[in-house]
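call fold(seq) -> tokens
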Amino acid sequence: MSDTNAPGDTTDTAGAGGMSGPAGIGGATGTAGATGGLDAALFAAWVEGIAAAVRTDRDRLTALDSAIGDADHGANLDRGFTAVAEALAGGRPDTPGALLSLVGNTLIRKVGGASGPLYGMAFREAGKALGDSPEVSLADLDEALAAGLAGIRRLGSAAEGDKTMVDALAPALRALTQAVQEGRASAEAVGAAAEAAEAGAQATVPMQARKGRASYLGPRSVGHEDPGAASTALIVRALHAAVSRTAGVPGGRSGPAPEGTPRQPVGEPSRRAQEGPE
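ret:
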């Protein structure tokens, strides 16, 4: 997402939960078992995957940003998620909520432009929504991502169609919510969200930006993929890869499960899943 001068809260708290010690995030396997439980190790693996994906795509993200922004999106995110990895290596929180809160606080402190406050807000709000449970369900994850999206919308005043990260995250959330309601397996459900995020990012190409620095270009912003939407797609794809590995799904790519594959229970549905998407 292009610069919007979004404010940030630099409170340095990791949220509820203890610390696992200095084992770091390397080699974290996590669980996404038959009950749909997602633990802190899985979320640490997700963050590790984000850091690797951003590092690999740093130049592409910066090139996208150079066309309609400040040409620093890739570099900023790489610096931020490198700092996150270092923070987790010093002692990983024991709960998913505390871990995501730590991620959010670190991004707010370390990442410049609009992406630091916006992604920081998203991770912090998601962490708050998960609370202090040592394991969370797929429905809980859906609710947490909804809280993260609401935080981005509130801070950036962005809606779908504005050519921002919301254009990737909102359809991803809709796909995940539908998958939760259908009782789909964790890897399949998050894979659907990843595909929707990637499609949403591509859909920003013909849009004219209405928010951030890109909006100053007017019609000249048409024809370029929004860098914030592109990085959001990377983040959701990394979540799919982490869930797929822990669920024993080869390849970590999305797509329907083979015919005859039993669906995993996903735990009790959240209030939001029962009520349906907004």
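The first helix runs from residue 40 to 56.
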